[in-house]
Every structure is written in structure tokens, then in C-alpha cells.
What we know:
The complex is a heterotrimer of chains A (about 325), B (about 300) and C (about 250).
Chain A: H1 2-24, H2 27-52, H3 61-74, H4 83-105, H5 110-130, E1 140-141, H6 161-184, H7 186-203, H8 208-234, E2 236-237, H9 244-257, H10 263-280, E3 284-285, E4 288-289, H11 294-308, H12 312-324
Antiparallel strand pairs in A: 1-2, 3-4
Chain B: H1 3-34, H2 41-59, H3 62-83, H4 93-115, E1 131-133, E2 139-141, H5 142-164, H6 166-176, H7 178-183, H8 188-214, H9 220-235, H10 240-259, E3 262-264, E4 267-270, H11 277-288
Antiparallel strand pairs in B: 1-2, 3-4
Chain C: E1 6-15, E2 18-24, E3 27-28, E4 32-37, H1 44-52, E5 59-64, E6 67-68, H2 74-79, E7 82-85, H3 97-106, H4 123-136, H5 151-163, E8 169-173, H6 181-194, E9 199-203, H7 207-213, E10 216-221, E11 224-229, H8 231-236, H9 238-251
Parallel strand pairs in C: 4-9, 4-10, 7-8, 8-9
Antiparallel strand pairs in C: 1-2, 1-3, 1-5, 5-6, 10-11
Helix pairs in contact in C: 3-4, 3-5, 4-5
Amino acid sequence: MRGTRVATLVLVGCVLALALLPLFAEKYYIQLFTKMMIMAIFAMSLDLLVGYTGLVSLGHAAFFGLAGYILAFAAPQYEAANLWLSLPLAMAGSGLLALIIGALVLRTSGIYFIMVTLAFAQMVFFVFHDTKIAGGADGIYVYAKPVADIAGWQPFTLDNHTHFYFVVLVLLVLVYALLRVLLASLFGRVIVGIRVNEHRMRSLGYRTFGYKLACFVLSGVLAGMAGYFAAAQFGFVSPDLLGWHQSGGVLMMVILGGMGTLNGAVLGAFSMMLLELGFQGLPAVGGVDIGKHWQLLMGGFIVLVVLLLPHGLLGLGRLASRLLRKPVEAGDD
Amino acid sequence: MDANTFLIQILNGIQYGLLLFLVASGLTLILGIMGIINLAHGSFYMVGAYLAFSLSQHFGSLWLAMAGGVVLAVAIGLALEWLLISRLYHRDHLYQVLLTYGLILMFEELRSLVFGDDVHGVAVPAILQASIPLTETLSYPVYRLWMSAVCIALAIGMYLLIQKTRLGMMVRAGAANREMVQSLGINIDLLYRLVFALGVALAAFAGMIAAPVASVFPGMGNQVLIICFVVVVIGGIGSVKGAMLAAILIGLVDTFGKVLTLQIGGVQVLPELSGMMIYVLMAVVLLARPEGLFGRRG
Amino acid sequence: MTEAVLRTERLCKHFGGLVAVSEVSLEFFIDRIHAVIGPNGAGKTTLTSLLSGDLASTSGHIYLDGEDIAGLRAERISQRGVGRSYQKTNIFLPFTAFENCRLAAQSRLPSSMRFIRSALGYREVNEEAMRALSEVGLAHRAQELAASLSHGEQRQLEIAMTLATRPRILLLDEPLAGMGSEDSARMVELLQKLKRAHAMLLVEHDMDAVFALADRLTVMVNGCVLESGAPEEIRASTAVQEAYLGTEETHT
């Protein structure tokens, strides 16, 4: 089908463009795009949950932030942690938290589910914000980037921002490919079936709770991967990484791009971050520093998108392509 | 803990719980009757508090400020419902979440622009500044007792309105079947608008009366919202009775959690981790009865 | 015909004060169509839901192959060979007819916790799906989206999905609902064909179909069994005619 061939070409083109970026761009942009790719992984992990399984979680940042804190803990005082040990540890930690929270929240559905995911994430936020476990509201530093040391040999060094960029790019492509394979597998078909009609799935004999929980955990693990690198890049973890602005932001990315498409999550992540930068860079108008109050514009933007773009940006794209398609090719799909 | 301190904590716990009930009742009504999840509900609490602060400075009287503030809050609520919320009735909860999340961001920034980011205090009105003595050294503020009394009065008023009036009956019918009520000739849009305005007014008013006690600060809306979610989850969506029970329960658990000391296995659980108590409570309810204490099953 | 595949014993369902199903004792055998008829609100769909596990019974027993399945959830009951079709079409609208059946057939695999191999690579599952579609006569529409099927075809798909799970007993809740005469005739033929290998509960309002298909007829009124027996007996019964069939005849 012409549609999927075009989509594949566009995808390959984007990956190529990302791969070639460091050749032309300065350090600032390389680091910016690294951050965007990290958020894209985060967004894809949530899309698996929201777009494909139909579970709207308002507390996904809990798994994102926890991984960051695990990295900070895993690093011996002022030294670097080992990537090959700390990354799996962080992802496993997030997965374990997802298992515990999931076992509780998946007993609910609909509005309740949204509220309890938010509430549990707030609980995790509270633990890191209000107790002395991890520096409280001040957060803690990740003094050195993790080292990728295997018995003395280092294939790359995360101190180098270009190496960091490529590591994240590879992971982005890997996660995307993994999720595509997963969604086409037996498990993936069950997940999508649950979103479309969970009642029927159960009457067909599927024990849906187990599948939803597995999905929730996997989603948490991937969010942990993103959180780990976010902490590693920024060099600092604070409770805000777990906060609900983070949860709301990533949910917005998934919706903005177009949920349930995976591509939409990546698109949404890139778009939201560029938009945020754009708003923050606005000059002061009539004595009011718009840039400082960029969240006002972001909030307004979110409201407009919800009202006008139910299928997100990709929905726009699909509409446009349908309008532009010549009559002769109309029977192609 | 001696008897007087215990009494004070009970009173504090109940007072906090009643305040939570005021805010949560609006949330659960809007959720149960209109099926709308409104994340910006906490923002109205904040709006109420900030209005109390600025208007009381303007008018010199907290009473006038409250009166004016409620009117303003209701006006904002009505406008919001008419412009935005009404477009969400037929849409997935996800979009309601996002839109109201966007509203939170806007409210926060508007507050920052108009009132700044400082923490403010509001003076207790002169009439209510006294304290009732319990012992030679301990006394209990009249204002707090007044707060509890007002909350109870409003709760009774709500009960009467919903259970005993024609309007309340229409509201309950509208919750069960929107189309049916519409075909009966009742203007359901107006009905929903009123319910929303009522919910907003309750939240804003709660913020106003809480202001002298809890102070006025930027994060207050979000903070109360989360707790209200816990109240609604524990009490059951749409159940005002459940919201009352859950709110009092949470008020007491939270208050006592902060003053008791408890060590489990070398870890200082209370008062350090007292903030977690309400979530533990929610987890227990989820395990035992996922639809809440008074929620409808499935 | 020896043991009943499914047997209920004084089955009851109460919703608070409302009695929906009361003291219902029925049996279902292979190669027999047991039709349950009655006016609206008689408790027929509630009964079906109790048997499929969609609802939990208040009291009484349900024996599947001799084993008491009361309290088991729908998933487990389905895995034990009970297939149900719904009165209100309950399919996966965004999927193709084939995918609907494939997903149904997939449920019979020991586990769907498989993450790598493509779902379409499971040949036996695909074949089972096509078999089910062919059996209801929808094989030529396999690649159509379920949402774009006609109402009659959707009802057929509803049955096909149930068949794809290879059940021993079929609980059919108004399979002819909303169908024109042509579709109805086709459905009756299909049900006749399916009878041999399955036990069947048929809840229906279409009296022509019921009398053409039923080996045994049970009339329910207000949650209770009014009468149960051979179709001719029921037709001749004055009590039944007063309570139910009488009103049906005045309509036709």
C-alpha cells in the first residue's frame, strides 16, 4: 500500500536526518535534540499505555523520576556509576514500582484509574520531596555521567555530548522497533483488543488483568530508561522529575502527536519541546515578560489542541494527505 | 497525649476534614452528575483564597471580600463552563483531563501575573478572633469552630437541595440519563451550568474561609486537588455521603499522623511519613473495595 | 445423549430488592437446542449472563460437565467451553472480520504472553479463524472492517467469534435481532447446522425461528420458569398462551 511505503520512507528519512545532525550542529543543538529524543522514549512508553491499551495514567512521571534517583544513588560519592549496572538497575526499579502501583490501580478503571494514578505518583513525589531520603526539595546531583566500562574497555564515553547523542538515538530506534514488534505479537493484539472492547476480551476467555499489568510494568520500565538518561544528561535530579507537571506534559505530548500511533508520540515529544522553547523565548510585550509566563501560552495551546485537534498532529497530516490525494489513487488503500 | 491535646487534635482533624469535604463535594458532584473530571477544581480553591486576600485588603473586611469573591468565582465558573467545559460532555475523560490540565497552567500563570508568587496571610475577622479556653494554657480558636459550623451548614443545605427539592431531583435525574431529561423539556445545559457553578462556588468559598488559617500560597490549589481525589476515590464517585465520611477520615488520619510518633523497625514512620498515610488509606480501600465506600459497583 | 453439558439448579439473581431470576432449573445437551422465550424483562438475558459468568448468581448452582462453576468469572467459564453471543452486537468494530475471529481463536492458545513472533504467524490460529468465518458464511468478507459490515453480517460475525473458541455449549442471546427475512432464514439454517456438535441455549423473540429450531422450550415470566417442555406442548398450553403467546399472536 502506498500509504505505508510513504510512512516508512518518512521514518527512515527522519532517522537519517537525526543521525547526520551532529555533523552540522553545534553543541547546544546536539544536547537539545538529545533531550528531545529522551522525551520521545518517555512519550512512547506512555503511548503504549494510553494509546494502545487505553489506560490513561496521570502518574507516569513516577517511573521516569525514580530511575533518575536510582542513578543518583547508584553513583558512589562524587564518582561515576557504571552504565551497564546502573541502567538495568534503574529500569528494574521503575519496573518494580510499576508492578506494585499497577497491582493496585488496575483494580479500577475509567475516571478512578486516572485519579489513583495521579494520587500514587503524588505519594512517590511526597516521599522524595518531603523526606530526607534524597535531599528533599533541593534534589541531588549526579556529579559524573555514567561510564560505559566493561573490564577496562569503554566503547563510548557519555561525557562527550556527541557520544551521548548517538547512544540515545540508538536506544530510541531500538525502543521503537521493539514496540512495533511487540504490538504485532500475540501480546500486542490482546492489548489492542482490551482497549477496543475489554468486556468482549474477557468473555472470549482472556484474563485481561494480567495483560494490563504486564503492559503497565513494561511501560514503567521504558519510562525508567528515559528518566535515567534525563538525569544523566541534566546532572541533577529533583522531585519535579516525578511531579505531575511532568506527567501532564508527557501525556500532552502523546495526545498532541496523535495517540495510538507510536509515531505520534515521537512527533509530539519533539513538537512540545520546540513549542516550549519558542514560548520561553518570546520577548516582553508592554512590560509583561511573556517568556517568563510561557506556561500561560502552553496552557492555552493545550486547550486549543483538545478542542480543535482530536486526533493530534498526525490526524492533521492524515486529513491533509486525504485532501491532496488525486482521485485516481483513491482506491489504493 | 493528654485529654485536652487529644480534644484539640480531634477538633482540628474534623475541621480539616470538613473543609476538604466542601471542596471534594463540588468535585464529586461534577464528576457524578456531569461525568466531567475537572483537574482545575483545585485552582478555584486557590482563586478563592487569593480573592479573599486581595479583596479583603481592598474592602478592609473579610466578609465583604467573601461575598464579592463568591460572586466573582461563580461568574468565572459559569463563563468557563459555557465556553469550554460544555464541549467536553461527549468526549473521552482523557480530553477532559488534558483540557483542565491546560486550564491549571493558565490559572497558575494568571495568578502569578496578577498577584505575584509570594505567600500571603489573611487576617481573621475581628468578631471571630476570640479563643475558647480549655485549660489555663490551652485554648481553641473560635474561628476554627466557626469554619466547621459553616461547613456543616453547607453540607446540610446541599443534602436538602439535592434530596428534597425539584431542582435536586432534576439534577439526580440528569445524572442518570441526560437525553431522557432533555426530552422532558428540562434545559439540561442550564442544569449542568448550575451544578458546575455550585461546585466552583464551594471550592472557592472553601479557599476563602481557609485563608486565615492555612495562608495563601502558589501551590495550594494543586495540593488540595490531589487530596480531594483521594477523598473521592475513598468515598466513591458521585456520593456526597461518601465524600463526607472519607473527608473526615482523612482529616483525622492526617492530623493525628502529624502529631503522633511511631517507629517501625527502626524507621521513624510518624510523624515523618505522615503525608503518606492518606495514600496508604487509599491503597487499602482499593484493595478491599475498588469502587469506594459508597460508590456504585461497575 | 447422556450427561447434560450444562445444568442449573434453582438459580437465582437478585439486584437489591429486585428479583431478576428466580429458582430456574434447566438442562442443556449436545445436539439439542433449548430455547428460552418470554416477554421483555422476563429475565432471559440475565439468565444468559449468569451462565456465561458476566453476572454472579445470588444463589443456586450451575454445573458445567458436572462441576459447579458458580462464582467463576467470565474468562474462566469461557475457557471451559462456554461460548456466548450478545444481544447487542459486541464485536471489535475497528478490526477486520478476520481479525475479530483470529483474536477469538487466539484465546485458545495456552498463553498469549508472547512478545516477538508476529501474531499472524500462528497458522493454526489463522486457520481456525477462517474455519469459523466459513461456517457462518462470512469467509468472503474476511478482510472487511467489522464496522462496515451490514447488521446481519455483524450478527453472523458475533456467532463466528464464539465458534472460533470451539465451545461445547453456545449461549445465543437473540441472534436474529434486527434481521430481515433473508438474513433470518440464513441464520436459522446456520443454527440448525451447528446443533449437531454443540449444546445450545437460544434466547429469541422470533417465534417462527424458535418453533423451527427448538427441541425443548422454556417459557420465562418475571424471572420464573412458567413452563418447560416440548414445543408442541408449550404451544398447546393455555397458561403459556395467556401469559405470552397470546399477546404474540395478536401482534402477528
